[in-house]
Fold this sequence. Notes:
The complex is a heterodimer.
Chain A: E1 5-10, E2 13-18, H1 23-29, E3 53-56, E4 63-64, E5 75-77, H2 81-96, H3 112-120, E6 143-145, H4 155-163, E7 170-172, E8 179-181, H5 198-202, E9 208-210, H6 214-222, E10 227-232, H7 253-263, E11 267-270, H8 271-292, E12 298-299, H9 304-313, H10 327-343, E13 350-356, H11 360-364, E14 381-384, H12 385-394, H13 416-419, H14 426-439, E15 458-465, E16 468-476, H15 478-490, E17 497-501, H16 518-523, H17 526-540, H18 550-560, H19 566-572
Parallel strand pairs in A: 1-5, 10-11, 10-13, 12-17, 13-14, 16-17
Antiparallel strand pairs in A: 1-2, 3-4, 3-5, 6-9, 7-8, 15-16
Chain B: H1 28-31, H2 49-54, H3 59-67, H4 71-81, H5 93-102, E1 111-116, H6 125-132, H7 134-148, E2 152-157, H8 162-177, E3 193-198, H9 208-215, E4 239-243, H10 244-256, H11 258-262, E5 272-279, E6 285-290, H12 295-302, E7 312-317, E8 324-326, H13 336-341, E9 350-355, H14 360-374, H15 380-397, H16 403-419, H17 423-427, H18 430-438, H19 440-448, E10 463-465, H20 475-479, E11 485-486, E12 494-495, H21 505-509, E13 515-517
Helix pairs in contact in B: 4-5, 4-7, 6-7, 6-8, 7-10, 14-15, 14-18, 15-16, 16-18, 18-19
Amino acid sequence: xxxxxxxxxxxxxxxxxxxxxxxxxxxxxxxxxxxxxxxxxxxxxxxxxxxxxxxxxxxxxxxxxxxxxxxxxxxxxxxxxxxxxxxxxxxxxxxxxxxxxxxxxxxxxxxxxxxxxxxxxxxxxxxxxxxxxxxxxxxxxxxxxxxxxxxxxxxxxxxxxxxxxxxxxxxxxxxxxxxxxxxxxxxxxxxxxxxxxxxxxxxxxxxxxxxxxxxxxxxxxxxxxxxxxxxxxxxxxxxxxxxxxxxxxxxxxxxxxxxxxxxxxxxxxxxxxxxxxxxxxxxxxxxxxxxxxxxxxxxxxxxxxxxxxxxxxxxxxxxxxxxxxxxxxxxxxxxxxxxxxxxxxxxxxxxxxxxxxxxxxxxxxxxxxxxxxxxxxxxxxxxxxxxxxxxxxxxxxxxxxxxxxxxxxxxxxxxxxxxxxxxxxxxxxxxxxxxxxxxxxxxxxxxxxxxxxxxxxxxxxxxxxxxxxxxxxxxxxxxxxxxxxxxxxxxxxxxxxxxxxxxxxxxxxxxxxxxxxxxxxxxxxxxxxxxxxxxxxxxxxxxxxxxxxxxxxxxxxxxxxxxxxxxxxxxxxxxxxxxxxxxx
Amino acid sequence: xxxxxxxxxxxxxxxxxxxxxxxxxxxxxxxxxxxxxxxxxxxxxxxxxxxxxxxxxxxxxxxxxxxxxxxxxxxxxxxxxxxxxxxxxxxxxxxxxxxxxxxxxxxxxxxxxxxxxxxxxxxxxxxxxxxxxxxxxxxxxxxxxxxxxxxxxxxxxxxxxxxxxxxxxxxxxxxxxxxxxxxxxxxxxxxxxxxxxxxxxxxxxxxxxxxxxxxxxxxxxxxxxxxxxxxxxxxxxxxxxxxxxxxxxxxxxxxxxxxxxxxxxxxxxxxxxxxxxxxxxxxxxxxxxxxxxxxxxxxxxxxxxxxxxxxxxxxxxxxxxxxxxxxxxxxxxxxxxxxxxxxxxxxxxxxxxxxxxxxxxxxxxxxxxxxxxxxxxxxxxxxxxxxxxxxxxxxxxxxxxxxxxxxxxxxxxxxxxxxxxxxxxxxxxxxxxxxxxxxxxxxxxxxxxxxxxxxxxxxxxxxxxxxxxxxxxxxxxxxxxxxxxxxxxxxxxxxxxxxxxxxxxxxxxxxxxxxxxx
Lengths: 584, 518
């Protein structure tokens, strides 16, 4: 059914848009950018901040353009004296209640409130501004919430409730006392937050920020007794450039490796390699379950946000979750065992740093079941892409001008299958590349599984193999995961293998990603562009399947014997257990 | 003879004449009133469906269902009556019913709701209807459901009205027993289920969209409109929401004819309105008067004038969303448009009378305090703006205000009116704006002279002991809670202004009128 076209005038410009379009989007099509603050397309469209107000002929008061639907013959004015004055006054009011710490705030330069103040030319705030400021909430490992900088846009609550359906944060109290918090104002680590960081990604100001752990890394780098090793996740190399002004989706792997080298890491490995190892272990696990009648569907476990969600909300599904550690944790485990032996260094003197697009990894590195037999924790510190960028800037490196560097191949050389882990469907495709070949004894060697690619929340596919049909599902974002799980539990959905990622779109959209404004996030496919860069890199690589990676084969032939071996299990696997939702 | 008792309490006499009123309807209080919405209150047992039926209750519904009256005919009658929403907005009820009837529901579900949240401080019109005549609301809602094609209704009632809640529950039970509510009403094949939903202490949930969101189980915050509830309301279905008093008029209109109703009132404001008369007035209580009755009639005739010989200063209509009508506009007719034209509004019916001892700045501050407590906090202008407005008013009543502050107040007021998300924020400035416009000199006295002409604003008060009257009895000093009075026995006592907390206890105790306040 064709959608009706609506004709209206915006600032005297005739505009024709489909029925159901908002005035905000209609204005964009006419080249007019109406300022917004609380608006995040498809996530938070509530008309609350009143920054996007416009004059509509015949209306009693100013209207919020982000939620006002167009109608035939409507006349809208986005730039009258009354509109500009209203936006300014609203902004002044918001600023009057905002702790202005811009000089030392980590969002200075990327803060959407700061940007509006600059755009509107607000240089004084005429209202009473002194008031007691709340203490920051720092109970979790991954974020800091500073309500003195909160503009109550509700974007964080929307991410937690709508996208993730975890819903641990939301507005408490009302009126001027309204503040974002958890139930009964408990600490965030007392409730069932999964550390996904989607709230941080949604926040326009410095109210929600990722906890900064760079000091620990600087200290380790400066410590002569420590052998500091680093590995970056697949997604980091297609995000990092954005922190230095490069277009979204630029692959900066070479510069990233040089930067890491210059920061002083003793060894620059790559978590992409560990991703290949994960495929070896998990592929073997899947085949074992498939052929021996084990618990199916098998569900991936590389996303600690998803794992924690499963432990807290769906503990009855834990037997389905793969026993494999995540690539980050396999990386650290191999460094402090295989590499340590090869290099003749005591694992206790090795300090492992991971660079992740993820906030939940900060929580994962501290999980007790990750502890190795030798007493070490595989990874000592997990930093986000943002934190790495800060270290690079602090070190004075002119990132965009750096030459391309090389990885240390032992735990650094990866196949294309490892690279695509960062996109939703990447783990599934990587696994299928190996699994299909093994199951068909080399008869079928498909390379690309386009059916599991793309940014839809839930994707499914089935593959006809001799003697077996393998049905797979890929979902990202926990609300989608829940939907699939409910179907699996009720029997309505039948799968053999499921990939769940906590963040919608996969790790390229993780909690630790570079800041992008609401405007970019609303109208640019940030995740799609970053994912595309990963798939492009995959296409250029020599080895595109995990089992073909010689540096993976070597670890098995030299050290682990074979995938799923006793040693592999001891080092690269762990078990998960039900967790309490509320720790009060 | 045993059922004749001697009257020990003197009968009601009318003011000046001292005449004994022989009929309730002849008393000054009731003479000008025309009780339509309140017609049964106080006359029937609200917990008896039989008594309701006995006063022609359920005649309208049974006629409609028996004759299978076309729904459009009912809607046309309501339109012709000119009934406008009694909750405060004054939207044409017939039109609202029409929009809801015309709206298409994807799954055929539509809702009919009743706004019984009555949050205005001092308002108890809806409460009286619900406690005194609950069946009239039930019958009206059933008729409305028939007219718009709905089969499920909710009455959203504030939890602070437990008697009304109980009586509604009794009414619903009895109506169902009699086949006048629920499945297959009066064997007509028409179903209408009705349930109660209790509020949780938020004034903002009296706002149409916030009320519906609250019924959905979410945080009671208004939603932007469009889409309007008639098209997309409760659970995203077409929803009709009317106020209790609006519903209370429906069966009277259908039983007596739209023309009868339209014959009462003014051209654009038909019928009657219930007011909760309170404040500095001799006769307080609920009054139901034809639209167009002047404020003078209400105050001088119905209200019996200002007690203690004080002078009438202003009347506040519409509660925290309304404005003040000053004494020189006492002949203003009370109807929707006349009130809006002078910067006030009808509101839900609160009518607070003020005399020379009321400070208009303090009144504005009082209503604003209510608003900042009740603002939902969703939109920035109301959440922060009302607070800043209040801070500015406190500055003025503390004696620290500047003339520039008055300009800032006006600017902020107009900003809230134009930019707030819902009517709570849009109308919150009304008390401030109307008092500032009508009583500017009073504000200026606070700012320029640091003086409160009405003698209310504590921080601007100044207590003094007159030398020629003080006998040195020490009673004031002994009772002063702040130890601010010094003096020897039989000697002149003085108040230390630094320590004085302006409580007025000294003035209360002095037997010689030696303590004065300015």
